[in-house]
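Working notes for the structural subgroup meeting. M.R. asked for a predicted model of this chain before we commit to crystallization trials. I am recording the input and output together here so anyone reviewing the notebook later can reproduce the run.

Input as submitted:
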Amino acid sequence: MKKILLLFLFAIQIINAQGAFERANDLYKKAKYQEAIEVYQSIVNAKKHSADIYFNLGNCYYKLNDVAPAIYNFEKALLLSPNDAEIQNNLRFAQKLQIDDIKEIPKVGFHKIIQDFTSKHHYDTWAWIAVGFATLFLMLFVGYFYTINSIVKRLFFTSMILVFLIIMMSIAAALFEKSNFDNNRPAIVFDEIASVKTEPKVNAPDSFVLHEGSKVFILETVDNWKKIELTDEKKGWILTSSIKELK
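Returned structure, recorded in token form:
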């Protein structure tokens, strides 16, 4: 009985969230962006996360020329749906509103070659590729086991080896991408102007200045300071209150 009640409550939550989502979409269509934001945010606050919600939140903030929240929500949407071309496109538009023009220093070496290959898919996609080829491996094994003809049997065996190698490669790629995802701590600058210090102290000299919407990567935390790195490899310390982590 308890399980049925929990399922019933869960179903009600889903219906309510869907109703709120449609109401927010209607407000967006009427150009009532601030009101739409409040409804979308209420869905997020209720722990209902989806790429669509964050994407629509990003669009609302973009319409209001609110740079940091627009970029933040598009980035959140992209984390949930990394291959979505529409999200990527709208993020690029929002990034054009940024003041900072941070260059990306290209990485080199064997690690870069591996990363270029594994980053073609999300780690979940690599995992499903491994599952798909594991199913194929099982089918080939059945064919190998029941085939009598030696030539066909040899063909099945060779195919099994190739498929097994692909499975191992897919698993390795999934683990590599998952490790990168877990160790990567991106954040967006929300302060209109944020000073990045040489040390985690208020009276330390400024290393450089960032503006709202800039993306940074957190390396470590000391009290209420975060050590950050940019894509151009500049590093420094910024107040935790100046940024908002994406995950």
